[in-house]
Amino acid sequence: MAEDDDDHGNCLDRRPCLRYFLLATFIATLLSLIAYGQWNSMYGYRKPDFWVKVPGIEGLERAGAAAAAPVFNVTLRVDNEATRRAFCAGRASAAVSYAGVQLAHADLPGGFCVPGQAVGSVPIVATSDGVGIPGELYERMESQRRRRERVSLEVEVRMEDCCGRLPVTLWCTAVLHGQPEGPFLCPFAYMAKGGEPRPCLSCGC
């Protein structure tokens, strides 16, 4: 075995050009990997983080006693600080639900865009075609409040024309009452035709 190692070393000694070529190849590969890592950290795409808040609600009353439709002022926060590339959606819509029942909806036909290395806020005003909320849901919500339990809303945000990719859907939670208040990051997925989620989790321009 020692003789084989000596023969291998002698072979390289007898071929200095080969030794220099291997060394240069190794150094070039290492530098390329370092350069790619730096480029990717600066310009490569990383999906934003999303969360929602509901800072204001109007008309959240029992359907029979309400004088107007409920209005939910939703703020979608988009943390795009991890990349230099903008995150844009050509169109967007949102649905606000409680206990699986939709209470309000909103459309953003103009979409939105958040620049890279920034945290943006997207205001959404969701309302309903009806007046108030169903009595059973109202009693359930009030019962949770009286017991000091957490009252949560589900906010589903659908983004389309996301840089030419498939529609993207966020499933978000906003806490109206109780602890912890959040915010909670929204799960994020592409939606294939027919509304089925796909596992790919990126959408960048």
TrEMBL record:
Lineage, top-rank taxon, reads: Eukaryota
Recite the UniProt keywords alphabetically.
Membrane, Transmembrane, Transmembrane helix
| Transmembrane segments annotated in the record for this chain | 20-39
This protein's name: Late embryogenesis abundant protein LEA-2 subgroup domain-containing protein
